[in-house]
Amino acid sequence: MQPATRRPAARALCLFCSFRGVYTPSRRLSFRPPSRPIARRSQPHSLVHPTIASLRHQSSTASKPDTTTPPPTSLYSAEDTRSYDRLFKAINDKLFLQTVGDNPKIPRETEVILAFKALQRLAANYPATITKSPTPKTPQTNPNDAILSLTGGPATNGTPNTQKPDKNLPPEPVQQSQETIEAEKTAKLNAPVHPLMDVAYHIAIHPFIFISPKVLTEYIKLAALLKDPSTLPSIFKLYATKPVLQDPSKPAKRPNPNAAKNAIAYDSAKAALQVAIAAKNMPIALDIIDNSVGTKAWCRRKLVTQVLPFTAVTSAIPLGLYKVADWLAQFQEQWLHEKAMTYAFVGFMTYYICTGSLGMIALLTWNDHMIRVNWIPGVYLRERWFMEEQRALTDRVAMAWGYQEPFKRGLESGWEWEMLRHWAGVRGMIIDSSEMVEGREMSAEKDAERLAAQESILARMKLKLAKPSDKKAKKRLFST
Q: Which domain holds residue 414?
């Protein structure tokens, strides 16, 4: 088979080649995944593990990504990672050339991982001219500044400025116009994509590529090296909704995005959130939380991995207590064996139920690990348990964007903080409650929190009423 050549008038052989022809450095990506796959084909069973379509998390395990540069591999040599053009040609020849022709094949997971590792090696030495904003030039000293300082400056009308700013007080926020705020929001949501991150994104959205936990981990590692989180929310959506190919002659199988096996691992969500925090992009950070630990698949995964084992253990304990009561009844002669066994079993179960109930209440209402984000009074315990990871990641966002001094917490302002407070309030969370922040006037803070809780509860009720509810066709919790 002859290698594919780039011709301006010819039709591209694959999605990766078509991207090469239209790529420009100022290209921007949307956060939404493609509306439909380019090709619906399935993967041969000889190339993939047979359980890849049923159990996603058994194919590979997601680990915490690091920013260390991987060593060169046999598939991609050190010469291939010296420049962008060489690596692009190597990926096109070794990864995507097998997806075209009369007998197309689907790349294996190892080949995709090696391609991402090669991009990581190139990203370690790539000139980050697009992601870095231009540094403002330092103003040059003017000889007239010394004369103006004696008279107090041009805006003081000749009166010297003798007041010194208090270092303990936070700086006053600068009033911005609504057009400036909207422009800043648009720039945050549509940040320019790094060229290497754009290549990795088009590798991931290729219809022949399966996004496994290991592939997702390597993608997050590349984003951490480039400090570009702009495509992470879109990849998190594709992780659960992208069709799985098993055989090129058959259509692709669409997975259930709400299945427990399609949930993002918590370590991957934390690593992706750290990339958004390092890039100082709050809208993308909140989108990452929504698409990782804020999905129905995450709740079902918690049910499968935590509730079912806990239910099995708590159901087996009474059987063990019954056997213990039967054994202890043999060492007495005052009552009949059945009566003594009944007394012992009732005593054991009373102690087990009372202490277990108190332990569950203490476990579900424990808040010593909460720093700035707390639950609004009235949120059900089951919702708190399902959304605990969402609250923890929101707490990390509030700690990263706010003041580090405890006495300054709650004094932040700006459109980002207004968005964060509204986003958390709709989900039943409150930032900087009077119980969490020390040294505040309790009466005024309690009144403000009560009003905020009422507004948040009303907003949550509006969201629930806005969703159409079909009572006739009820779906099962674990339906596939």
A: 368-467
